[in-house]
Amino acid sequence: MNKFVLADPKLCIGCRTCEIACALSHNGERTDNLSQENFFPRLSVIKTFDVTGAVMCRHCEDAPCASACPNGALVRMSDTVQVIQEKCVGCKTCALACPFGAMAIRTFKTPRSFGGKPWGFDYKAQAQKCDLCADRPNGSACVEACPTDALRVIDAQEMQQIRQQRQQKAVVEAV
Amino acid sequence: MQKVIEVCPYCGSGCKINLLVENGRVVGAEGANGVTNEGKLCLKGRYGWDFIHDTKLLTPRLKNPMIRRERGGKLESVSWDEAISYTAKRLLEIREKHGPDAIMTSGSSRSTGNETNYVMQKFARAAIGTNNVDNCARVCHGPSVAGLQLSLGNGAMSNSIVEIEDNKCIFICGWNPADSHPIVGRRVVRAKQKGAKLIVCDPRKIEAARIADLYLPIKNGCNIAFINTMMNVILTEGLADMDYIARYTSGLDELKAIVSKYTPESTRKITGIEPDLLRKAARMYATTPGGSGIYWGMGVTQFLQGVETVRALSSMALLTGNLGKPCTGVGPVRGQNNVQGACDMGALPNVFCGYQPVTSAEVRKKFAKAWGIPVEKLSDKPGIPITEIAGHAEKGTLKAYYCMGEDPFQTEPDLKAVRKGYAALEFLIVQDVFMTKTAAAADVILPATTWGEHEGVYSSADRGFQRFYKAVEPEGDVKVDWEIIGLLSTAMGYPMHYNNTREIWEELCSLSPKYAGATYEKMDANGGLGYVQWPCPDAKSPGTQVLYAQPDGSVKFEMPDGKGKLYTVEWAPPHEKCSEEFPTVLSTVREVGHYSCRSMTGNCKALTALADEPGFVQMNPEDALDLGVADQELVWVQSKRGKVISRASVSPRINRGAVYMTYQWWIGACNELTAEILNLSKTPEYKFVPVRLEKIEDQKWAENYVRQEYSQLKQSLRQTNAEGTVAAYA
Hints:
heterodimer, A: alpha+beta, Alpha-Beta Plaits, two-stranded antiparallel ribbon, two-stranded antiparallel sheet, 25% helix, B: alpha/beta, Dimethylsulfoxide Reductase, domain 2, 4 domains, six-stranded mixed barrel, globular
């Protein structure tokens, strides 16, 4: 089973600490080059009239983004769904396919050269979403930073525990 | 990498931080296992440290002393010797000519520490000879300090932050924990998880309201009417603790005479609350087994009846026996990291450190002896509150202001009037870390060290003394605040020299019975995580978690008769009324990612990435629709006093007919709109300002205007700092 970060709206206070933690985690933990133009968290704190919670990739088992990608840029690996950026062409199909709105398409300007001299810009696109901080030694940065423990990683084992608890509750309530 | 223990420099939650230092520079922060934060930090604590190294994002750090020799002239860089002797000479001249009460000083509720505040009030009282010293508690929890002192005898939170999660019932009124104090807010969430009942009273559906058992969407400006009605229900339904009232309180008959008229039906139009819902809330608050705690913020204090509302809330706690017991009580949750401390240290016009009144001859005698001055030199006349500086300057009764760690040109109400008043001062000294808007108008700038560059003690919101330590060497030709004050004092003929903060702390504890046992050793214990809540009267005492509780289980208030005073008044509406011209209520509020005048958080990259100028004006979707304004569009907000541009933030959580702005934006500065209407404790009515919103058709123009204004402002502050030229900003 794929792992994912679960956000509990009952515990969330909407402080957005997770957004900064996420942006930094994907910026080499550097704050010095951070700005409004360069602030790309892969989760968003969303507030409706009576719900507040972080929304991010659920790492779906039958991931619609992966099914939709025409270029094979979205793959399943190590119990997660990941984007192979080299293959992404920025076609946005995955963003439209995702039922959670968890996929963002970022476009970057990259300098182009001609005959060894700078010559205008190229555009490079990236489909970006939660990668569960796969390469981060301490695990998911948002989970680590959340001051109210409203975020946690759910894996197969935890999922099993949740099921068992619910089943026990169901059988008791059935009596 | 080195880890240095700090207390967070932002709100009053008292969170302990490990500041990560590498090669003499701060490179990160992580939560330390402090008493109040248990290893957790919010975004400001975790990502709000890079201002130390002068990012110049909003405004540059002050790196050397400067003097402006004549008004309209340029600031020029000078040596410390010259800055001190020039300042001393000018202050002495003013005192000679106009007397000591023509000079005003300020303590600072921000990251300078308790020792500096003690030294500043000593300077004002002993060196200058005036009680003109105050701090920005005046604009926030001044009414809490005054109201609680009048009703219970102690102006501080009665219980502690750690107890909140074990409250069985939490009553929140005019406090937005998630935005103002996220790590105290965490305790509210945990209490709810543990099964506590939660009652939230606020015009906006704030985060706490979302998880509340009862949410009471009270109307803006109804506070006293609302609390009187709560007490009416408590008394008429027999929910009061009559035994507790008889033993520990006074004033029941007078209280009854007033609240008897405030039935839920009769006040429904004022409060906007259905009688059934209000009765449910009163029953829940009064009868939940295990007791209830009340917590409030600026939504109570920043009204014309701020002091009275604090007293009414205390009365509600007294009526139900919710004082002097664990996990109950009254909690004004303090806004700035050391606003409790600045008050504790006597940076107030009416008390010396330890809340000892200047009007007491015995107290003056004690301080005169300790400070080595004749007792006649200590004034018995309470001084001027900071909110009246501009007025006194214009009248000519105040000639000089020594402003430390405050930015009145951003934080005071009615900024146009503030600038005009301050311009009438003969001499303005600003001692700060950043080139703030106030600093740019100063005659002398004394640059100080910032958080991370010095050590000392802070008081958190629940009276907890905690140590913070020096992490890095200061940048530039700057000095520690208390050292600067000492030099100035010495140059003025009252020698004041300390070698370190410990010497200052020991002196002030020896003069303050409430802090006598709060030693550095106790705070340094447990790897620098020690927590000592005053009163801590002797060496054996670990501090006091619950005020008024006696060892025999009884309750005694710090009043002459030992009894808590039941008190309320008739409700009066806010001073300014909405009209056809200004139909909407503006209330100033806080947002989670920025703090105070923003000189610190505005210089932090991550926090600025999250929110930047011109800031936001929160409004209801239907109001936005009526105006034809879409979410995130720029709009004009105008009051009688001024007009600013802001960005619409449209949300159904905002009540109709009201808008909300945060006060830290330098372009969208809501204090251009607010009024200097002061309550009993001289706190402005920031929470009720009639305004009008105007749609801007040409959004492209508006976006450009904001960009230009912002870059001009930043440019002018940088230039003032770098070249010593006059700030173009007026």
